[in-house]
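Pasting as-is:
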Amino acid sequence: MLEITCSNSYILCHLSQTNERKKYQGLKAFKLRLIDELCKVAATLAPNPTQQVSVKPGRPRLSNPVERLEGCKHMIVYSKDDRRCKVCSTPDKPKKTNFRCKGCANQPPLHPKHCFKVWHTQLHF
């Protein structure tokens, strides 16, 4: 559905340009520009977290736990060093990954498929 919507919007944009302004832009470049514009709009609409976090004894948090649930700025990136995954790694069974979330303040190591989604959608896991 989304692919059809992007293709239709590309065709409409291409047809609506006047002859003076016609500048050929491929579908790939159009999609990249569309993604950039949608991310800019989403970043302005993202709510600021106002929820108070309870303070627990021990090392202080590096980021607001609600911040990781905001979906507009998170992107998985490759890292050369492998670290223990924040979601699926346990003290008994450490599981390592080379991927991190670039949008989170402390850039937690996460597996790109299941763990990335769990980290950014569930408050407690």
